[in-house]
Amino acid sequence: MLDILRRLVQAVTDAEDLDTALNIIVTRIKDTMQTGVCSVYLKDDDSGRWYLMATDGLNPDSVRVASLDSNEGLVGSVGARGELLNLDDAPNHPAFRYLQETGEEPFQSFLGVPIVHQRSTLGVMVVQQTTSRKFSGDEEALLVTVAAQLSALIAHAKVSGRLHLSTATGERPSDVRFSGVAGVSGVTIGKALVRKPPAILKRVKDERTDDAEGQLTEFQNALAEVKVELRRIGESLSEHLDRSETALFDTYLRMLEDHTLSGEVCQRIRGGETAPTALKHVVTDLVARFEAMDDAYLKERASDLMDLGRRILSKLLHESDDALVYTDDVILVAEDVTPVMLGEIDMRALNGIVSVKGSANSHAAILARGLGIPAVMGAVDLPLSDIAGAKLVVDGWRGEVVVEPSAHVLSEYEHVLSDAKALADDLQQVAAGPCKTADGHGVQLMLNSGPFGELTSQQMSWIDGVGLYRTEFAFLSRPRFPNEEEQCSEYRDELLAYAPMPVVMRTLDIGGDKSLPYFSIDEENPFLGWRGIRVTLDHPEIFLTQLRAMLRASLGLGNLRILLPMVTSVDELVSSKALIGRVIEELKAEGLGVDTPEIGVMIEVPSAVYMADELAKEADFLSVGSNDLTQYVLAVDRTNPRVADMFDSFNPAVLRALQQTSHAGQTAQIPVALCGEMAGDPMAAVLLVGMGFDELSMSASGLAKIKRVLALFSRDECQQLARRATEEMASGHEVMAMMANALLDKGQPLLVPPRWRHDGSVTT
Ligand code: PEP
Ligand code: MG
Questions:
Q1: In angstroms, what is the span from residue 512 Cα to ligand 2's centroid?
Q2: Rounded to the nearest 5 degrees, what angle is found at the Cα of 395, between the Cα atoms of 392 and 399?
Q3: If you measure from the C-alpha of residue 629 to the centroid of ligand 1, how many angstroms do you get, rounded to a whole number?
Q4: Could you say which of 266, 363, 435, 718 is catalytic?
């Protein structure tokens, strides 16, 4: 059965459109089950009726004609109840309804199963037979398995097909929504510029040559042209981005210079292959090797390599570069948006990005974040061929694209945009100085610093230091582990930039979704695997080098705090402290007067919450990583779009874990901070202060909002709200509604997410 399924899924995946896919399904199932009929009915979203969309065995003219009301007939009954129906005497079933146009009269046996995708019934798959018999348990199981396997494919084909059918009639439907992953937050509206990748390597025919020298020269020339192009694009992007971000283009140039690629191509040309043929084989082989790796970062390299290969090929084939013609409100759309594609467009014209492949960690998304351009990644259902020139709303908060928004949707989004602008203008008025509640209780406002831009002097006046410096940046931007000197110089820059304010440096936190190109961690279940402190404790040589670099960087400044990620036990803290102590002794022995820094523990996993009181006895401060804590408390993969709706930091289970952590810190009389995304959310910040958190650390974009919102609530009010959330509420929804109302009562609708603005109840 597995084999049948696998071949069926492959055939449906390769099908060009919905009709072809459905026809393949019904023919194969009818043959496999040796029945008289196999049909698929799909629900029409507008009328709610079940339309016969494909059949092998019924009158083919009734396809798209025969339909049943939502509850009508055996099909309606299967669809409405969402349960299978297996009958040996179908015509005598009370729900039986005779559909004349299908000519189905002689069929006695009926087996119908619902096709369900993400809780909603998309259609019904039916097999019928003239003789009277009950279908066997095995046959039921086969049809249920096929329907379950195919539901996602049908959902995909249905969305794409809907758009396709309508464009064929020259009319575009409005408000067609496609989900992806939130790549870069923000909303934008513009026109789709669909970029196709340059020349397709797969299409190159295998050809041989007698003129190896000539082909070698052609290849070297093509390579040189691509290098010039990349340098030009890299330079033009560097006007808008930091050096660390455009370093990527140096990596591309190195990939082109690398002997593996050009050396292997030249060798094959000398062996008699033409340059395009040799290039095709070498690049596809390298790409396959990268793709086979489990490591997310290395997989991304496969797409870079393919892009480079195509670029060289288009030079070899002397394809003319179509001059890009675009408007000044471009949404760049492509199967796989690459950094090079980004660099080809004038930044002033680029409003947003939509990529069918990729995630928030893709290079294009990282660059877009640096540029402040909203992006939706992984929009897998987006039918690229149909949307060129279409108007798009890119909602980088929800990870959603709306194609051809109606006037109504457009005005909603225009409201969102103008509200965002009004809020930004309003926040300009936030006064300089430290952050306090309405009754003067001080809250330490800290920055999650990154490689993107500097703070304004006004923002500088609000912060009390850096609450999270993710040292992974120093490791990610290189092709190998950075040495002690390299790390020391980067850390010193950071410590100097904020001195005398404290800077919390987190030790290397790799594993999970963060991997280094040169240190692959290949695991079935990486979020429950070798992550954070587990890796560095197992590799003291890496850990000790980093600690030496940090401590040396802090010489004479005294503002370093060290934070340990993904701690799950007191033992890990004790072992880490021992290594830190060893480095301090070593440095002292070398004659360096280093201070002993404060050492903190990240509370990111349930075991750390339960053991927070014990950890607090050994640590100088606690800092909650609410992104991971939410993931582990709710068992929701933070990178999986399928469960993104369930990732809810307002869930009372998460809030109770936070409350317990804060309590442990207070009992031990050490500061408790929170440095996940929650800290920059106004509704969450009020609750956190109410729970007793002393420090909130967030990215620069959250600072003004949090300073504003905390100034509106007294500490007592924050405590009341936190108590109700943790003791009286059963869902994140209830907590959000309460907080929305609290902010509306304070006259702050712009600080409430749009869908909660009316009386705290959801409006869209
Ligand atoms: C967190 O988990 O909340 C956190 C701050 O760390 P990161 O997002 O880097 O895992
Ligand atoms: Mg974390």
A1: 9
A2: 115
A3: 9
A4: 363
